[in-house]
Design goal:
- It contains 7 helices and 2 strands; from the N terminus they run H-H-H-E-E-H-H-H-H.
- The N and C termini lie far apart (69 Å).
- Helices cover 51% and strands 5% of the residues.
- A two-stranded antiparallel ribbon has the order 1-2.
Amino acid sequence: MLRRPAMTKKTGKCPHCRERLPRLGDKIHPDCVAPWYEANREKLRAKAMRAEKRQDRETREKQKGLPQLHKEAREAVHEYIRLRDAHLPCISCGAPPPDLSGLHAGRDAGHYRSVGSAPQHRYNPMNINAQCVHCNQHLAGNPIGYRFGMLAKYGEAETLALELDNAAHKWSREEVRGIRDDHRAKVKQLKREAAL
């Protein structure tokens, strides 16, 4: 009885001339290296540029200090709050959301407990709510109206817990980066949902 010969792995094809390669493990015919490189020079250059830009971006990200990261995280969190509360009235005075198309569309993201008095709550979404520009900037946050709004929105127990929490917190770069990236993703998700 005749046996079939054992199957051997096939060699690949040359990416330039598309002919079968002579040995297993070869990637290209030796004669095709120069023409293939000439044909793909722009692609290779663009790929190298993308890799270099990615490396530069990663290096710049590693070199960012805590103040720069806090600024980027604050911008991301505040944009998320403005989008989250876009349909809600001002938490301090109850003014309806304006129908404007501008930078903030007439809305600010105001803190109930200021960052200076409670830095541990600077990114707490319960501590940040949509406020009209008048209350946030001209009335120094309108704290009395803000407290009434907090009681109506979150209830007395949660508002008191926020007011009485004075535990110190030291922010690390990784933690602030995580908050920034998380809220940027949330902003993208809210914008995607709004576009549907």
